[in-house]
Write a structure and sequence with these properties.
alpha/beta; four-stranded antiparallel β-sheet; 20 strands; about 15% strand; globular
């Protein structure tokens, strides 16, 4: 796919990297002594540690290069509780958890706003007139800390910082407010911030996108490793998932977006930008971040364990291989880091067929609307909007019109209802979370309250934090939209791979837990960029196998 798109963009055709022969031992190599000229930071949206481990034996190209030839941390963590796209992306290149980045969720609530729904999207400027959280002006203003690219540019203004992605929140949170170029996919092609003109390269990519979208697609063949997954899973109303091949009618952007076609286009754009801007070919180190969003859309639309997800991971491996092969041909000294913004959980209907009968969907009684009705009946405040929230989990906010006495009554009754519910694991008050020290130590050992603290911002977080039990899918009806999601504090959603690769670095694997906030200080050490430890939450990871320390002095 990347080859086809690249050819349409008049790029040099890609060839797949050679596959190592069985039994061939890698020649010992010393670590490079000079900083890389280009940092390539890749986020694969919803690429869980579970998916990585399940399909790792079948990697043949790009993912094999990273996992078998690079430095692999298969037990990485998005260590916070709010495992959503915006918070996760905000950690990857800032070195900071959501409690420091300020990005506590995809959507939070500001009850002081004049908006009727009071919702604020993480990557918008809500002060723009005539906007709402669903029809917004994209902006990085809510990100409270600099990204790696921002720090690099502050140290050397010649540094070029580019961010491209399938989602605006991925591109914005990884690129940061000082990026030179930020582009994300829309139904009309790649777009940027309000008022940013479309340069010739983006216009060319968008023309290729429009031409491809206007043509139907027969879908993809089923790889051999996916055959055992090829059975339908009913989700109700005569609908099923699990046997798809991504066949698409002409003009169907929704199917395009939730398919390998999307990632292929984004990687082709990234390769074109590297060529067009001569990234990595000047005196300074440049950085490009790439948000590959299709795996997330596939997981939401079809689940994580059907043929659809299996095909997606196979194609992701192949497209990354073609992308890296193209970079190799440029001769640029580049370093890659690949991780994910969060993991994901398969739909309960398939889990129940596959040895997990306890899997279930969330009770509608846990939605903010239902809670408002129940609490209103108990407190004599019926008919008023008492509780605001984005769904049957996460932050809940009490209406500002409540008197102190009413507020105390509403909180007390809400806690009684939630803590008695069989699907609720824990409910924390903002006072309990705020009183908890910022967590430290291995992320796999944290308590739920420590995970909640890592997601807490006193200005943006709610009055209560609702955490569901494991194996409760917070989607009530799978026939009306997505069938599966993430966002929980459990390892299915927290655990992600963290993979580094650079020519000259010897492979090793570290199975112990590390955090995505460790990525920024690790890369900063490679380019000799000082980062005050008090400004971030992460620590530098030594990428040199055996003796030696790539973190020395940092």
């Amino acid at each position: 796919m990347l080859r086809k798109v690249a050819a349409a963009l008049l790029l040099v055709p890609c060839a797949m990297p050679a596959i190592a022969q069985p039994g061939a031992a890698p020649a010992p190599q010393s670590a490079p002594a000079t900083p890389p000229k280009l940092i390539v930071a890749i986020s694969v949206d919803q690429f869980s540690g579970d998916l990585f481990n399940e399909y790792r034996p079948y990697f043949e190209a790009g993912l094999k290069r990273l996992a078998a030839d690079g430095i692999a941390f298969p037990r990485g963590y998005q260590s916070h509780a709010a495992t959503e796209t915006c918070p996760g992306h905000s950690t990857i290149l800032t070195g900071s958890r959501p409690s420091r980045t300020g990005i506590i969720a995809n959507t939070w609530f500001d009850l002081n706003t004049g908006r009727e729904d009071k919702a604020v999207y993480c990557a918008e400027d809500e002060s723009q007139p005539g906007t709402n959280s669903g029809d917004y002006v994209a902006s990085p203003i809510h990100l409270r800390v600099p990204t790696l690219g921002g720090r690099m540019k502050a140290a050397n203004p010649a540094t070029r910082v580019v961010s491209v992605a399938g989602k605006d929140r991925a591109a914005i949170m990884m690129g940061g407010p000082t990026a030179d170029q930020v582009w994300w996919l829309s139904p009309k092609g790649y777009v940027s911030y309000k008022g940013v003109p479309t340069p010739p390269l983006i216009a060319k990519v968008n023309a290729v996108f429009a031409q491809r979208l206007a043509q139907p697609s027969p879908g993809f063949e089923l790889p051999a490793q996916c055959a055992a997954k090829d059975f339908p899973v009913g989700i109700g109303a005569g609908k099923s998932v699990g046997t798809g091949r991504f066949a698409r009618e002409a003009g169907d952007f929704k199917v395009f977006r939730a398919s390998p076609e999307q990632d292929a286009l984004t990687l082709a754009l990234a390769a074109s930008v590297i060529d067009n801007m001569d990234l990595g070919r000047q005196g300074q180190t440049d950085i490009i971040s790439i948000g590959l969003s299709a795996t997330d859309y596939v997981g939401h639309t079809y689940g994580t364990e059907g043929t659809e997800s299996c095909i997606q991971i196979d194609r992701l491996d192949q497209e990354l291989g073609a992308f890296f092969d193209r970079l190799d041909k440029t001769g640029i000294d580049y370093v890659v880091v690949l991780t994910a913004d969060h993991g994901g959980h398969d739909l309960p209907e398939r889990h129940r067929q596959n040895a997990m009968p306890m899997e279930s969907r969330v009770d509608a009684a846990l939605t903010p609307k239902a809670l408002t009705a129940a609490v209103g009946a108990r407190t004599g405040l019926a008919g008023r909007r008492l509780i605001w929230g984005d769904g049957p989990m996460g932050d809940l906010y009490f209406d500002l019109s409540l008197t102190p006495g009413q507020r105390a009554a509403v909180q007390a009754e809400t806690l009684k209802i939630l803590r008695a519910h069989p699907q609720v694991q824990a409910v924390f008050t903002r006072a309990e979370i705020a009183a908890t020290p910022s967590p430290s130590g291995p992320p796999e050992s944290w308590s739920l309250l420590q995970e909640a603290r890592a997601s807490f911002d006193p200005e943006r977080s709610g009055d209560l934090l609702l955490l569901l039990k494991p194996r409760i899918m917070p989607i009530i009806d799978p026939t009306k939209g997505y069938v599966a999601t993430h966002g929980s504090p459990w390892d299915t959603d927290r655990r992600v791979p963290i993979l580094f690769w650079r020519k000259g670095l010897r492979h090793f694997e570290q199975p112990l837990g590390v955090e995505t906030v460790d990525i920024l200080p690790t890369l900063a050490a490679l380019i000799n960029l000082p980062v005050p430890k008090g400004e971030i939450d992460g620590r530098c990871l030594d990428l040199i196998a055996g003796e030696g320390d790539s973190c020395a002095g940092h």
